[in-house]
Every structure is written in structure tokens, then in C-alpha cells.
Amino acid sequence: MPEPALRVVAASKWFGGVQALNSVDLEIHAGEIHGLIGENGAGKSTLVKILTGIHSADSGSVRLGEREVVLERPQDAAAAGISAIQQEPSMFDDLSVAENIFVGTQPLKSRVGTIDWRRMRYEATRLLHELGSEIDVRRELGLLSVAERHIVSLARALSTDARIIIFDEPTAALSHSEIGRLFETIAGLRRKGKAIVFISHKLDEVFRICDRFTVLRDGQLVSTGMTSEASESDLIRAMVGRTLDDVYPKADATLGNTVLEVESLCHPTEFDDISFSLRRGEILGFYGLVGSGRSEVMEALFGLKPASSGTVRLKGQTMALDSPGQAVKFGLSYVPEDRQQHGAILPMSITQNISLPQIDAVSGRIFLSRQREEALVSEFCENVAVKASSWSQLVEELSGGNQQKVVIGKWLATRPEVIILDEPTKGIDVGSKAAVHRTIGRLVQSGLAVILVSSELEEAIGISDRLMVMAQGRIVAEIDRRDFDREKVAALATQQSVGIC
Amino acid sequence: MKSELSGAFKRRESALLITIVVLLAAIIIRAPEYLGEQNLDNLLTNWGFLAILAVGQLAVLLTGGIDLSQASIMAFTGMFLAILSQYMPELPGIAFVVLSLAMGMALGLINGVAVAWIGIPPIIATLGTMTIIRGLVYVLSGGKWISSHEMSEHFKTIAATETLALPNVFLTALLCCVVVWLWLRFTRSGRNAYALGSNSNAARYAGISSVRVLMTVFMVSGAVAGLCGYLWAARFAIAYTQAAEGREFAIIAACVIGGISIAGGRGTVLGAALGALFIAVLETSLPFLRINAFAQLAVVGAVILIAVAANARAERKPGRQILVRNDHPSDSASEA
After folding, report:
1. Class of domain A258-494
2. Domain that holds residue B226
3. Do domains A6-240 and A258-494 have the same CATH topology?
4. How far apart are CA B286 and CA B283, in angstroms?
5. pLDDT of A201 higher than 50
6. Please, which residues bridge with residue A258 across strands?
7. What distances in angstroms separate CA A52 from CA A27, A73, A74, A100, A164, one per listed residue?
8. Cα–Cα separations (whole angstroms), residue A306 to A77, A135, A259, A299, B231
9. Which of A197, A205, A171, A234 minimizes the C-alpha distance to A84?
10. What pLDDT score was predicted for residue B98?
11. Contact B166, B44 (CB under 8 A)
12. By CA distance, what is A269's nearest residue in B?
């Protein structure tokens, strides 16, 4: 076998007292696609950050061919020909496509050293053409779709003549056809002799395009080999260290009366004609791609976003749709998607977070009542099984899964009838996911009605009783649990209306 | 030359230009004497001072920062150079220009160090230097004014004279606009300011040094403030401790009205210049509209605030376009 294009030897990295990488080796060859897989927190991102010069390793070395390279800054990685395409490409929304491709490396007029805008646009257009894209390079990047941003990000990698290209979960927000095109592009890069690292937790994708794989777990390399010689169950076992029998437990709950009825909810630009109903003890899944309008509908229900028409009835009473405070009083709770931004107040304690929406209930005449606050917290944190050293621990010190449980607990404390969970397991590892799902199961068993917004098909199918599939701001299908079919649901969610591509 | 991202920006700038023209027309109908030569001169000079400061402020705002110390830097530089002219009456006018730029740049460097190296948020850092530098003006002058007869003739000449019937302050401001425009548009350092303000994290990934960018923009902002301080003292032939106190609001308002985002990443020199023009027209018109002299400051403040608020409403983003509109589904069918 020839010398690998990139070789990582015994890389280790500590963050405070946590070892993120423990003596990891990795070999990537020119002209191969190498799958790097592992759960969240397994060390994939740390490894990528070391390779791109964002972090430096505490020990170990990186070799390019014969040569050892020092990657202390992002410029070093670029100079070494290593480029990464981030999951949600981190770029400049305010700048044009051409500038995004060439930021920091803008072509200069040789005589005076000023930026040569014409050549920059020309080169940008040429790079995009090579990738089979016709994006206008003058457009503002912020106006592009996620798939187009990936292409721009890729064009940027090619502009620096990268020989090693890292794709960090590039398919998370793409539709089926976009994923297909991306894979063709990646295969094209392989033919040109690039060494490609493909990071994903979707094993079917790994089997579809990767030649070899490396599995990381808890910062260590646990398995590596040819994808053609491995099976899906091998990889799952390597990833989680145990067989993964029950990430999506379906709790048995009896369905009760209808609690929530939504009729023809409309918004001028974001969604149209949304109607559905929800019963006690039911988990109603809202599945669709990122940007299909699911979260927008939920925000409208909760009064965060004004709907232009439509009615919402909770237990037969018509709700005003302009005040989250009213929604909470009516018995509707909303656990938003981005728990760091909207959900939890990280530098505050678990107790303070839980009692926040209930500040009246735990107040004495003037001051807060510690006693009532603590009673409230222990009731609801135990309910959702938060693991913490004490209830006064700061939320930022908890793991992602436990943070999510605190946020759910916080809204349960308002004693809702209906709770909306928007992507409750986004960005948390498989073990914690199962725990969050068990928590949701307990909620419906106690008679709560749950709306689950998810862009993860397994999750939506795994724990929902009924599924509303959304695409481009409309409900395109309502499916009962017994008719669930992965392929059909995926096809419905990614369908595009006629004439639009 | 056709610029990048023209659409939205151009619309916004032409809207502002129309507003200014309407405002001017209204003023002239009400008080035709506004067009007197004396006052036009006054308008151009007033715009000049504001525009010089606004293009410097623009550079800082682009990175997502803010520079509140410009007015203090003005007062300090003006005072220092006025005193210098007493001791060195032979110093030529151009020397004052160079010295004012250098002094302003040095004071801006202090802001840069505080923000980029020490990591103090720009609003706090420049609020601090604003107070310190203003305090130093008192120390320097002992609280006294330097008036016309105490300054050297060389000191006053440049700012008080005209070239081709246009005030030198106005021409200097035009030059500043052009230089800053060239810098922001045609150098990597200028584009890096946009990039840093647009997404500091992505800028880091792109290998842009935030320290270098921040140092540069604060030095530019300081340099133009220094220049402006000298021109101000020379033009009005007075240097005093409270010179330009409170001008921060007008400067930043000019930028905001000109469409420059306080959050960074967006804004043009043309926008800053037009924003400055709006405020200059407003300020010079009030005496003609017979607004009580004591009420003028309050009126200016209120109008600026209204303009900024109107601007903020226009900026507010509509919802995302998720729905796919098939507005004329029958068209293609009928043609087929």
C-alpha cells in the first residue's frame, strides 16, 4: 500500500479534566473516502478541530506523506492542504458568494496589490461550475439554501487546492435529491485523487459511499477496516459498546379525549392551512426536513409568531394566539429546539431554571419561598430523571441529555395539558436519547398529550402514535402508526412541488 | 462600477437620498434663505466634520464594535495642537494635519489594545477612554480656552479657507470617504473587517486575525477623529475643554440612518456619508425654521431618534419564505 496522504499518530487531547482524544491513529489515503463514525462526544469533532488547526493536540503528530506538519492555526491547515466542510457551514451571511469562497485569499492585482473583483467572480463561477452549480456569485450568501451553502463551502475548499477534504455530517439538513448530488460530487473528488474524510452517524450513508471506516468511542479508536467487510450491526456495536436494542422505546398509553384542535392555521409566508387534532396520551409526530415550517407552526400555536388566520382550541376553549403567557395558562407548553438559546439559562442552577416560569407559584408575599421552590424542583426533576450532583448545580455543567431533561422538567412544572417538544434529542448521544424517549413515554402514560417535532426519521417513526408529514409549509400527509413506512415518509417529506427545484 | 450585493443596499441608499431631497425641498419652501451662500458653506462644513467621523465609526461598526471616544479624541487633538501652535508658530499647516492623524491613531491604538488584546467589550473600553481622554484635555489646558488670537496663522489657514469655492473641510471629508471606501473595498484588510463583523467564528476558521482587524479599525477611527479635531479647532478658531462633547450620538445615528448594522458586517461608505448629510441638513435648518435656539438640541435628538426608529422598522425581517407559491397555476395550462 502506498504512503497515506494523511496520517495521525497517537493524537491525544484533554479539555480540563476530560480526555477528548486518547492516542488516536488515523490513516487516510489519496483517492479514498474514509468514514469517521461515532456517537456525539466520541471525539470526532475534536479530531477534526485538530486537523484544521482550531485546537492543537496535547501529544501525537500529524504527517502529510513523509512530512510531519504542525497545525497550530487555521492558516497552517490551509497551507497543508486540509480543508473542512462543516455541518452547518460557518460562513458570512452578509457577504457575497464569491467573497465567501475567497475570504482571506482574495485574488490581488499583481501591480498594486488591490483586490481583483473581476477575477474573483470569474474564479468563483468557474469553481462552482466544476461542482455542477449555477449559483450567481454576486448573491448574498444569507439568501442561499443549506444545500447551496454546502456547495459554496466546498468551492472554498477547492479554491485553496485542498488535498484532504473533511465533510462533517454534511447531509443533516439536505433532502434526498440534494444528498444524491452531494454524493456524486464527493465521488468526483475521489476520482481526482483527493483524500476524503466523511463524518456521519447515518450508517447507511457510510456504507453507500465510504471505502474504509474508523469508529471512535469515548475518545479512543475502537475499530477500523474496509466497509465492504463490515456489517451495520458491527459498526453499531463498535459505536455504542453494546447492542442498541431500545433507543426508541414505544410506551403503551391509552388514548383519551381530544384536547387540542387546530383548524386552518395560516401564515403569509411560512405555512398554510395547518389542521390537526391531538388526544390525551398521544404522541403526535411532526416530521419534515429542516426548514419545512414545523417549528414555525409550533411558534404560532404558542403565540410567538402571529398567524394570519385559523383557530386553536384547547379543551374546547378558543385560544388567543398572541401571547405565550396565555398559552401557558391555557395549559400549552413549548420546549424549543435550541435549548442553549431559548430553553435553559445555562449559568443558573437547576432549581432556578425549573422555577422560572412558575415564579408566582413559588413566591411568598415579597420574597421567593425556598421551600416551595425546592418542593417543585424535586417533584419535576425526579419525574424526568435528571442526573445531577444536587439541584443547585448549574445547568451548564450538565450533559446535553440532562440539560434537555431540565428544560422539559421546567415546562412540566407549569402543569400543562399539551407539551410541544421541538427536536428534543438534537445533538445528544444515543444513550441520553433513549432516556429522553423513556421520559416522553412516562409523560403520555400520565395523560399528557405530546407534539414531537423531529427531523430524525427513526425518532419520529419510533415513538409517535400518528405522524404529520410537512413539506414546504404544508401538511402533506397524516399517517397512523400501523401504516408507518420509512421510505414512504421520507419520500413525502422530500417531495417538491412542480416547477420548483 | 457595479458593486457586489447591490440590490438591497442600493434601494436603501436611494430611499435615504430621496428623504434628504424631500427634507431639503420642504426647508427651502419654508425658508428660501436657507440657500444663501453663507449657509451652504455652513452645511458643507457641518457635513464634512460629521462625515469624517462617520466613515471612521463605520469601520468600527462593521466589525461589530463601537467607538464612543471619537469626540474626546477630537477635543484632545485640537487642544494639543492649538497649544503646540503657540509654542511653534512657524509650524506649517500640513504638519498639523499629519500630527493630528498620528495622534488620533495613537489614541485609537489604546482602544484597539483594550478591545483586541485585553478583551474588554468595545462599548465599555471606549466609554472608558472617552472619559480618560476628555479628562486629559482638562489636564492639558488647565481648563482654559485657546482662542483665535493665541493660535498661529498657519494653524488656522487650512480649515478656514476654500479651494475652488468649496470649503477645505468639505474636500477633506470627500477625500476621507474615498480613501476609506478604497480601503474597505479593495484590500484584504478592509474585507476582513466585514468578515469579522459578519461571523467572528467563521472569520477565525478562515484564518483572519481578529486582533489585527480590531487594531486597524480603532486606529482608523482614531486617526479620522484626530484629523477632525484639528480641523474643528482651526475652523472655529477655538480649542476648549468641552469641544464636541455629546457628538457621539450624531455620529452613530448618521451611521445607523445610513443603513450600517450595529451588529456588524453590513454598511457602506456611501450610507455613512448620506446619513451624515441627513443630520447636517437637519441641524443647519433649524435656525431658519425659527425653532427656539434653546430647543434645537432636543429637536435634533428627537428627529434623529424617529429616523433611527423608522429605519429599524424597515430593517425588520419578514418571515422566511417557506411556502411555495403557485400563483398562476392556470397560465401554463391555458398556453399548452
Report:
1. alpha beta
2. 52-246
3. yes
4. 6
5. yes
6. A279
7. 16, 8, 6, 18, 10
8. 47, 33, 22, 8, 52
9. A197
10. 93
11. yes
12. B321
- Written out in words, the top-level CATH class of the domain with range A6-240 is alpha beta
Minimum distance, in Å, between the CA of residue A357 and any CA atom of chain B: 27
Q: What's residue B230's pLDDT? A: 93
Q: Is some CB atom of chain A closer than 8 A to the CB atom of B165? A: no
Paired residues of A394 in beta bridges: A349
Looking at the DSSP bridge assignments, the partners of residue A11 are: A24
Answer whether A92 sits within 8 Å of B265, measured CB to CB.
yes
In this predicted complex, what is the ipTM? Answer: 0.78
User: What are the Cα distances from residue A148, in Å, to A95, A102, A471, A498, B118?
Assistant: 15, 16, 18, 20, 38
Residue A87: is its pLDDT beyond 70? no
* Segments making up each domain of chain A, as ranges: 6-240, 258-494
Q: Is A410 helix (H, G, I), strand (E, B) or coil?
A: helix
In-domain check, residue B11: no
All three cell numbers of B330, joined, read 392556470
Contact status, residue A447 vs residue A255, Cβ threshold 8 Å: no
CB within 8 Å: A115 and B186: yes
Nearest to B207 among A75, A86, A272 (CB): A75
Do A20 and A43 contact (CB within 8 A), yes or no? yes
Distance CA B214, CA A234 (A): 51
Cβ <8 Å between A94 and B266 = yes
Inter-chain touch A140–B266, beta carbons under 8 Å: no
- Taken as a whole, chain B contains a residue count of 336
Candidates B5, B191, B202; nearest CB to A91: B202
As a whole number of angstroms, the distance between CA B178 and CA B167 comes to: 17
> A133-178: per-residue pLDDT in tens?
888 888 888 888 777 888 888 888 888 778 899 988 877 667 777 7
Q: Does B294 touch chain A (CB under 8 A)?
A: no
Domain count along chain B = 1
Q: Which triple of cell numbers denotes residue A160?
A: 485553496
Residue whose C-alpha cell reads 492543537 in the numeric block: A56
Q: Rounded to an integer, what distance in angstroms lies between the CA atom of residue A76 and that of residue A187?
A: 26
Q: Are A284 and A466 in contact (CB under 8 A)?
A: yes
- Quick count: other Cβ atoms within 10 Å of Cβ A317? 9
How many residues are recorded in chain A?
501
What's the mean per-residue pLDDT of chain A? 81
Q: Positive or negative, the Cα torsion across A463, A464, A467, A471?
A: negative
Instruction: List the single residue in B191, B198, B318 with the smallest CB-CB distance to A93.
Output: B198
Chain segment A426-455, per-residue pLDDT in tens: 766 666 777 788 888 888 888 889 999 987
Alpha-carbon distances, residue A411 vs A261, A325, A350, A400, A450 (angstroms): 21, 12, 13, 17, 12
* Sign of the CA dihedral running B87, B92, B98, B100: positive
Q: What are the grid coordinates assigned to A492, written together? A: 413525502
Per-residue pLDDT of chain B (336 residues; tens, 9 = 90+): 344 444 555 677 888 888 889 988 988 888 888 888 888 888 999 999 999 999 999 999 999 999 999 999 999 999 999 999 888 888 888 889 999 999 999 999 999 999 999 989 999 999 999 999 999 999 988 878 888 888 888 878 887 877 888 888 899 999 999 999 999 999 988 999 999 998 887 888 777 888 999 999 999 999 999 999 999 998 888 888 888 888 888 898 889 888 888 888 888 999 999 999 998 998 888 888 777 778 878 887 888 788 778 767 666 555 555 665 544 433 333 333
Question: Residue A269 carries which DSSP code?
Answer: S
Q: Say how far apart CA A295 and CA A316 lie, in whole Å.
A: 24
Smallest CA–CA distance, residue A269 to chain B, in Å, is 5
CA distance A137 to chain B (A): 9
Nearest-Cα distance to chain A for B214, in Å, is 16
Smallest Cβ–Cβ distance between B191 and the set A103, A271, A499 belongs to A103
Tell me if B255 is assigned to some domain. Answer: no
